[in-house]
């Protein structure tokens, strides 16, 4: 429980003798943030403590009090409540003379006394104000003020309250200056513009009621969010959460999952696990494979943490993780796309309130069950490509040959799930494409295309990824060369007697010595007929060489016919074959 230091308390409030003539309050707590104070007040009320109220006080603090009472009653209640443990033992009686805006109960009001303007009004500050919801009285209950009264009530605002007013004016679209709590010409002009737009007298000074109206509009976007401070002791995290739209579901280490509780498809994940920089780097990579983390968006990483923003036309997610004392902790907010104002306001609250506490999520919290899947990470679906195909290195810079069908309609392309690539050459007639990695790669093996005519019925092998990204290394499928032409005698195509799958498409077709005879074509119907499963075709090496060299790219060739043991050929295939993945965005 946050408490004012005794010295600060003595400066702000004077303990009162019990009198029946002057209203008195019992101050039980003070918080540095409005949201923290609202949660504290809500907690006392939930425990049955009566007459709970909350007020802003000088110095940027928020007081939680009980009252008002007369002095005798306040002193008596103070003794009884402290003895019962209902309130902290350092609670004390105050007269309320320093109270300003009342934030609890919501809709209550208290007139602010006229006080001199801040002595540091001219001092510049660079601190930005957090976009915390600012509770305000119902403007319909506040009488109109004269210009003189408006100036007096404005002088009663402290620096934080003035910053909050600038934030609200900025949100409303009337202010674009610094959030410094200084009401200069820019702030005055923005107040005038707001008054004109809302049918008020354009004085450049907002009345108490107008400020309440502005804050009511500012906070309306958070209605139904029910922001509350959640302390998850299992995860070791304390954070504000929109409990109006999410609720706790389960622990799936390293996540504590809070899934959507209503129509708004929002989700919060608390992240908690032991680890060091190496493990944090692994988490950074793994999180970006999740379906809830779209690939588009800003990424930032340091030795002490990282942030990941993911945006597409369906969702907008934000992840923040920190490493401290051997513990990796953070959170992820997943929000529907197109609802940016609420998302941003909720996110600001979560960022401002996030606090690691003792404890880390026990990896044994969740027991294995029948719902386990290689497509899930801690219960979350992994982002999957539109299709996976095969390819192979043909250049020393990491250039990859694959099927044109593999990259058709792709928003983005990856090699081996981690290297981005773009099409450097596409030959639709042959059905081939050359991909160039976004950053040069050093391939362990590069294809040598066979220029000699192979022998019919010779052994061949196709290297590829028949199961897509499920297997991390390519599989080698063996067969024979059935014909050096197509079914109708087509030149430039070889017919194979081999059983392949869609994921093998684009892979290299090896001869017995490890030279590349061609590239496996996608399976297709011939004249409306479905061919037997063991009939496949490859694009001839000579056709590939001509097309690629015609585009200004060089390839390696050989005319040597040799023999290579299957074990060695398998190792060569593992070094040369590449998983080519086509992504929606």
Explain what you see.
This protein has 585 residues and is an alpha+beta fold. 22% of the residues lie in helices and 30% in strands. It contains eleven helices and 31 strands. A seven-stranded antiparallel beta sheet has the order 8-9-10-14-13-12-11, with helices on both faces.
Oligomer: single chain
Whole-Å distance between the termini?
47 Å
Query: What would the principal axes of the Cα set say about the shape?
Result: elongated
- Over the alpha carbons, how many angstroms does the gyration radius reach? 34 Å
The order of strands across the largest sheet is 8-9-10-14-13-12-11
Helix content: 10-25%
Tally of helical runs: 11
Please report which band the strand proportion falls in: under 5%, 5-15%, 15-25%, 25-35%, 35-45% or over 45%: 25-35%
Largest sheet: 7 strands, antiparallel
Uncertain parts: 1-20, 109-141, 370-376
Quick structural summary:
This protein has 585 residues and is an alpha+beta fold.
Topology, element by element:
Blueprint: H1 6-12, E1 23-31, H2 34-46, E2 52-57, E3 61-70, H3 71-84, E4 92-94, E5 102-104, H4 147-155, H5 159-171, H6 185-197, H7 208-220, E6 227-232, E7 237-242, E8 246-252, E9 255-260, E10 267-274, H8 277-287, E11 299-302, E12 305-311, E13 315-324, E14 327-336, H9 340-353, E15 355-356, E16 376-377, E17 380-381, E18 387-393, E19 400-403, E20 412-415, E21 419-427, E22 432-437, E23 448-450, E24 459-464, E25 475-483, E26 493-497, E27 508-510, E28 516-520, E29 535-540, H10 541-550, E30 556-558, H11 566-576, E31 577-583
Parallel strand pairs: 23-30
Antiparallel strand pairs: 1-3, 1-4, 2-3, 2-5, 6-7, 7-15, 8-9, 9-10, 10-14, 11-12, 12-13, 13-14, 16-17, 18-19, 18-31, 19-22, 20-21, 20-31, 21-22, 24-25, 24-27, 25-26, 26-29, 27-28, 28-29
Helix pairs in contact: 5-7
